[in-house]
Write a structure and sequence with these properties.
69% of the residues lie in helices and 3% in strands. The chain has 265 residues and is mainly alpha-helical. It has 2 domains: 82 residues, Orthogonal Bundle (Arc Repressor Mutant, subunit A); 168 residues, GntR ligand-binding domain-like (Four Helix Bundle (Hemerythrin (Met), subunit A)), CATH 1.20.120.530. Strands 1-2 form a two-stranded antiparallel sheet. The longest helix is centred in the middle third of the chain and has 22 residues. The chain is elongated, with a radius of gyration of 23 Å.
Length: 265
């Protein structure tokens, strides 16, 4: 279902849309309410927040609590104080959107099974999108990366930089800046485990062959094949990485499993 953007709110409507706060950490609730209006598009870039005094009256709190809430929003990159204008809503950056997810992913950086599960959720759809959206320049860059990886493998090296670059370039070709930043974070967290997965006889060659199959599908504009080959590639890496671990270590954590059940997977 497509959502219809809500109209921007005039100053009085902003005040009417906010509610008094009755929590111990009132500044967090204030920040959350203003954040919601920004996320909904009802407060847009360049819009001014009401003065601290008015916000304190609307929320039924002290001006100190309002000031603390605005600082939280400022740290998140959502608002900025401007001399003579008050507090103004900023254009939301990609980093401001991705930062909470980055923190959540980083908190589970040692849960490799969960991170690989996340890869299987993200990367096959990215490969599918790349098959639709990749430009000729994107395809050429993927070809250059695969060629460089092949040269490293022939020399007996672990082509981890090229491996990272290949997956990152597919995310770039999919033309989604939020997911691109997420993949960047994910690849960095998985770097150590991916080095291990490329060590050993035939492993680097198998990874290279997987990349070639994915590239062929993207070059042929075959989204179904691109998605399926990416999933197979990740599962092959996962099987190598967890081959020597007990079965319990290969399963996603309870939180990830519960999320899977709620998704019906």
């Amino acid at each position: 279902m497509s959502s219809v953007p809500l109209p921007p709110l005039p100053a009085q409507a902003v005040r009417d849309a906010l509610e008094p706060v009755r929590k111990t950490k009132v500044y967090a609730d204030i920040a959350a309410q203003i954040h919601r209006l920004i996320a909904e598009g009802r407060l847009g870039p360049g819009d001014r927040l009401p003065p601290e005094r008015e916000l304190a009256e609307v929320f039924g709190v002290s001006r100190t609590s309002v000031r603390d809430a605005i600082r939280v929003l400022e740290v998140r990159g959502l608002v900025e104080p401007r001399h003579g204008e008050g507090t103004v809503v900023k254009a939301v950056s990609i980093d401001a959107i991705v930062a909470p997810l980055a923190e959540a992913v980083a908190a589970f950086k040692h849960a490799a099974a969960d991170l690989f599960d996340m890869r299987k959720m993200l990367e096959p759809p990215l490969a599918r999108a790349a098959a639709f959206r990749a430009t000729a320049a994107d395809v050429r860059r993927l070809e250059e990366i695969v060629a460089a990886q092949a040269a490293r493998v022939r020399a007996g090296d672990i082509a981890i930089d090229e491996d990272n670059a290949f997956h990152y370039q597919i995310a770039r070709a999919a033309k989604n800046q939020v997911v691109l930043r997420t993949i960047d974070i994910l690849m960095d967290l998985l770097r150590e485990s991916r080095v291990r997965s490329l060590q050993g006889a035939g492993r680097a060659e198998k990874s290279l062959e997987g990349h070639r199959r994915i590239l062929d599908a993207i070059r042929d504009r075959d989204p179904d094949a691109a998605a399926e080959r990416m999933r197979t590639h990740i599962e092959e890496i996962e099987a190598v990485l967890f081959a020597d671990l007990p079965p319990a270590s290969r399963e996603p954590s309870d939180g990830a499993a519960a999320a899977g059940e709620s998704r019906g997977v």
